[in-house]
Amino acid sequence: MLGAGDTGDVSVPAEATYADGSTGTLTIQLTGWIPGPAYGETEAVRTSRIHTCTGPLGTTAAIFHQVGELDPARNGRRSR
């Protein structure tokens, strides 16, 4: 999945639905968008600046790629 925390690091619960209709839970952890990865993510994209209501700043920000751990014994269909 792709994402980043807005005001800091985030850890949120998620539910995966498998092809057999069963569900399982996992935790998604993502780093805030300004520092480097803290939870084993990789950077998908990093900007050269951010934009605020008063104009651009020379601060870089990133969107991260994170892998969620699913139950390998079940076939994953989608997560929400």
Question: What topology does this entry show?
Answer:
Layout lengths: L1 E2 L6 E9 L4 E8 L11 E5 L3 E3 L2 E3 L4 E4 L10 E4 L1
Antiparallel strand pairs: 1-7, 2-3, 2-8, 4-7, 5-6
List keywords for this structure.
about 80 residues; 3-stranded antiparallel beta sheet; elongated
Give me the number of helical elements: 0
Radius of gyration: 16 Å
Q: How many DSSP-defined strands?
A: 8
> What string gives the helices and strands in order?
EEEEEEEE
Q: Can you characterise this structure?
A:
The chain has 80 residues and is mainly β. The chain has one domain. 0% of the residues lie in helices and 48% in strands. Strands 1-7-4 form a three-stranded antiparallel β-sheet, with no helix packed on it. The mean pLDDT is 87.
Give a brief outline of the structure:
The chain has 80 residues and is mainly β. It has strands spanning 2-3, 10-18, 23-30, 42-46, 50-52, 55-57, 62-65, 76-79.
